[in-house]
Design a protein that fits this description.
Number of strands: 14
Radius of gyration: 20 Å
Strand content: 15-25%
Strand order of the largest sheet: 5-2-1-6-7-8
CATH superfamily of the largest domain: Dihydrodipicolinate Reductase, domain 2
Helix content: 25-40%
CATH architecture of the largest domain: 2-Layer Sandwich
Oligomer: single chain
Number of helices: 9
CATH class of the largest domain: Alpha Beta
Distance between the termini: 21 Å
Order of helices and strands: EHEEEEEHEHEHEHHEEHEHEEH
Number of domains: 2
Shape: globular
CATH topology of the largest domain: Dihydrodipicolinate Reductase, domain 2
Structural class: alpha/beta
């Protein structure tokens, strides 16, 4: 399709009909990304459907290697298997794959990027750039301004993660269970989650490993270390799934090598691009998932000194579909264009 900017880039989205894919289309429009041509791609199940972009209906084609011919950027918003198989095909054809799955995040030759934090890392790409997990991104966005005040030592984190972290099927399962409860019917057997999510919380995101940690929890640890280049940073974490449609929240207890005063933390956070401070608990001002939904910023509140130590408490909230996924991916492409213009 012809966009506003004929000198723009050819873009493909793998998983264009999924939860993140739909938001990617919206973010590309909102940010006026220079799209010359857009190819929506998906699995066989979605072939023949259409997506809307800049007022046009575009047919969804099958995600095959030849679909990447002549494409500058391919956003992967689908399964990890697809990105693992097709990512190298994009690189082979001279494009850049920007992947939202976990397939490439810890690969030593693949940059893992949050542009506000380590944007220069995009210059090291070999055809694939990885975007972090939707919990890691707001966590690191809140840590980076504080790291610039004092070196990080350790953090204790509990996350409260929305059902769309598991994609559209996660939201459908929550809504289906809520309808059943409202209509006094038996709740359908859970499929996407390990148990009932409506009116409930599950202290598990994804699956448990042999060491009793979930795969989501170890992503938070290792991805944070890689992005921040802090291999010794200690993170203790528990990830919880909650019955919220959009917006991941987390409680963070942070220890730094030198104590940071709450007021200094507020100033540093407020000055950091992409972070908004909402912190006046006396007047019930603090961020919630409802505040973050539909926004690209990461919100931070409840900034206070721990009562038993010189550590700092933070409450962090971000939209898992936008900055946690789609927006960060688009920002990666923007960063790459800024550093390597045609």
């Amino acid at each position: 399709m012809a966009g506003k900017k004929e000198t723009g880039r050819a873009v493909a989205i793998v998983g264009a009909t999924g939860a993140v894919g739909e938001v990617l289309l919206r973010v590309l429009e909102e940010r006026d990304f220079p799209v010359r041509e857009l190819r929506p791609l998906a699995s066989e199940r979605s072939v023949g459907t259409t997506v809307r972009f800049r007022g046009q209906k575009l047919p969804v084609a099958l995600a095959l290697p030849e679909a990447f011919d002549g494409i500058d950027f391919v956003f992967f918003a689908a399964t990890g298997e697809l990105s693992k198989t097709l990512g190298p095909e994009v690189a082979k054809r001279g494009g850049v794959a920007i992947d939202k799955s976990s397939s490439w995040r810890m690969h030593p030759d693949v940059p893992l990027v949050i542009p506000e934090v380590n944007g220069a890392a995009v210059e090291k790409h070999k055809g694939i750039i990885s975007s972090p997990n939707c919990t890691t991104t707001p966590f690191v966005m809140a840590l980076e301004p504080l790291r610039r005040l004092a070196p990080l030592r350790r953090a204790v984190v509990t996350t409260f993660q929305a059902v769309t972290g598991a994609g559209s099927p996660g939201l459908e399962e929550l809504l289906g269970q809520q309808r059943a409860l409202h209509e006094h019917r038996p709740i359908p057997k859970p499929d996407k989650f390990a148990g009932q999510i409506a009116n409930n919380v599950l202290p598990l995101c994804e699956t448990f490993r042999d060491d009793a940690y979930s795969t989501e929890e170890v992503k938070l640890l290792y991805e944070t270390r890689k992005i921040m280049d802090e291999p010794a940073f200690e993170i203790a974490m528990t990830c919880v799934r909650v019955p919220v449609p959009v917006g991941h929240s987390m409680s963070v207890l942070l220890e730094t090598e030198r104590p940071i005063a709450p007021d200094d933390a507020r100033r540093a956070l407020a000055a950091f691009p992409g972070v908004v401070v909402m912190d006046d608990p006396a007047h019930n001002v603090f961020p919630t998932p409802a505040d973050a939904a539909g926004r690209d910023e990461v919100f931070v509140g409840r900034i206070r000194r721990d009562l038993t130590s010189e550590r700092l408490w933070l409450w962090v909230v971000g939209d898992n579909l936008r900055k946690g996924a789609a927006t960060n991916a688009v920002q990666i492409a923007e960063e790459l264009m800024r550093r390597a213009p045609r």
